[in-house]
Structures are given as structure tokens and as C-alpha cells.
Amino acid sequence: MSVTAGPRASIEQRPQQRSRAALVTGLVILLGALVVVCFFSITMGARGVGPGTIWKAFSDYDPSAASETVIREMRVPRTLIGLFAGAALGLSGTILQGLTRNPLADPGIMGINAGAAAAIVFSIMVLGAQSPGTYVWFAFAGAGIATVAVYGIASFGREGATPVKLALAGAAVTAMLTSVTNAIVLNNESALNELRFWQVGSLAGRYFPVFWQTLPFLVIGIVVALGAGRALNGLALGEDLAHALGQRVRLTRIVMFVTVAVLCGAATAACGPVVFVGLVVPHMARMICGPDYRWILAYALVLTPIILLIADIAGRVIVSPGELQVGVVLGVIGAPVFILLVRYRSITEL
Which family does it belong to (predicted)? Predict the structure, then answer.
């Protein structure tokens, strides 16, 4: 994945359309916004709590106090899962768009989330897997198989895997895998009641056991993804030029697709198949910081959890004391944005 010093410098200087100071400042501002959003994620809901209650929940915890229990056992793990799963989805969407040169590439649209979800449901309902630490491995396998299937279908024909064919193949594979998932779940009424919220993507009911069992995979995937900026910058010049500059393109693609499978598999195991956020955020990051993937990945790492947690908070507030699942809120927001991305080509230039 290495490039020689001279060509690497030219690759990395080309995207510098914004000063480093401005990019660092923007990232710091977003980190501050993320802290604020996390605070509201912990305090807002059917049972409102204040800063004093939060402090007491960690400094002098009283198990008999309902508000403190809600904070420690429900809202904190929910917020942490939103942070890490959101980062995973944003980074995987960025990597997919960079690898495929397809502005519509997204773990949801490409069938990767559906593959992970189908494998998880199969492992739980058919094989009897119980803990996320067990069925997360099925999620990785399902995500990987879905990726191979989409690219295999899209590669048929003279032109190979074009962006349009990839999107169509992803839609077809997603429909097929969703049908398989529904067929398994609908045959078991208790399973249907348990999984119907998870299937649309939800942070509700996700507690610390789920967080701790998926955290190692999320952290490993995030670290590898953040180191992929230079490789994606090389691929942005075109596969032939990347080869000429000494980049090991095939190895880069394999490592990146495995990373996407790990990120999507762990995120899906944690909170279900959340869609659209991996499609929209890379474009938002690109509009802010330009085409340098080192900065796009950094911005996606912070932007995606912000959007995911805001959608989760909105779902709690809109229908309080009930709540809308985060996948439903993102679907309502993401559908018009998806139409804009398809309609206006200039927005999606890579």
C-alpha cells in the first residue's frame, strides 16, 4: 500500500484546497458539538434529568434511584453505541465510495448491512446464538458474502462493475436478503416482536453487554479505516496511475473490503442495519474539507455520530413518551437527500 516519496507528495498536495489550520479548527468545533450532543443524548428522553443527577449517578450511585439507574444502565450505553457504531458506518461509507469511485456507495445500498443482518437473524433463530460476541462473527461473514455477491453480479457484462450496475446489484441483493430475514422472523411470533425494532435500526434497548462485546471489533475497524487515507488518495488518481506509482492496488482493495465488513458487521450487531448515514456523511465531509481522504475520514468519524445521535434524540422527543427508532428518523431524512444526490451530479463528484 506504499507509494514512493515523490509521487506520494504530489498525491497529498493535490487535495490541499483548504488550509490545515482551517481544517483542524473545523474538526475541533465538530468535536465540541459531539460532546454537546452526547450530553443531550444522556439527559433527554421520557424521563428528563439534569447535570446534578448525572454527576450523582457516577460519583454517588444509588441503585434505588430510578433516574440514576436510567442514566447508568440505559442512556450511557445507548450513547456509547451510537458514538462507535455511527463512526463505523461513516468510515465504511467513505471507504466504499473511495474504493468503487461510486458516489452512491453505502453499506445499506450496497447490501452489506442486509447481509450482516440476515446472517445475525439466521444465527439467532436457526443456530441458537445468544450473545453479540457469538453472532458478530456471523455478521462479518454475512457482510463479506453480500459484498462479494454484489460485485460478482455487477461485474457481468462488457463494462464491468460500473457505479450504476453496483447500485442496482446492491438493491437486488438487499431485497433478496431482506426477504430471507423476514421469512425467518415471521415464522416465530416472539422473535418478530423482539427483532422488529432492531431490523429498522435502533439504539433503544442496547445495554453495556452489547457495547463491550462489539467494542473490540469497532475499535480495530476504526483504527484501520483512519489509516486508509493515503491509499484512498492514490486510488482517487485512477487504478492505472496508482499501479504506476507503486501502490499495491489489489492488496489495498482486499484490506479495505475486509475493514468495511468488520465495521458494518459490528455496527449491525450492535444496533441493527442503519441506512443512509453512510451515504450522506462522506459527501458532507467532502464539501467541508475537499477531496483529501485523510481529512474526509477524520470528519466522517465525528460527523456521523453527531447525526446518528441527533436522529436518536429527535425520535425520543417527537413522539414522547414513546419513541421513533433511529432507523425510521434517518430514513425520513435520508430519502430526500438520496434523491438530491442522484438528481444533481455536481453534488456527488468524487
Answer: Belongs to the binding-protein-dependent transport system permease family. FecCD subfamily.
